[in-house]
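Backbone-to-sequence.
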């Protein structure tokens, strides 16, 4: 999927990936490129940090009750992606022409 070998990912230190992304963004800006850099600082931050949150405090202090549990939500997301044409369709939405 998307040319990525998900079974054997390469690991590099966060600061190296972030620095490389900064350089690639700078080169793209200098060249006034219409194509985005291979990787961006945003992408490195999104992939390199834990972006999960604990909702226990919201449940206790705000009486928050999720409408669906995590497993149901992920299943519904999977079904929605399939229904709109799959990950290939989504990836085309974010590629410049």
């Amino acid at each position: 999927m998307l040319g990525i070998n998900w079974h054997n990912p390469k690991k590099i230190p966060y600061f190296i990936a972030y620095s490389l992304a900064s350089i690639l963004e700078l080169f793209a800006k200098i060249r006034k490129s219409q194509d985005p850099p291979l990787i961006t600082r945003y992408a490195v931050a999104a992939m390199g940090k834990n972006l999960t949150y604990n909702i226990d405090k919201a449940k206790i202090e705000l009486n928050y009750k999720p409408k669906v549990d995590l497993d149901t939500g992920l299943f519904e997301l999977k079904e929605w992606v399939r229904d709109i044409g799959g990950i290939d369709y989504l990836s085309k939405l974010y590629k410049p022409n």
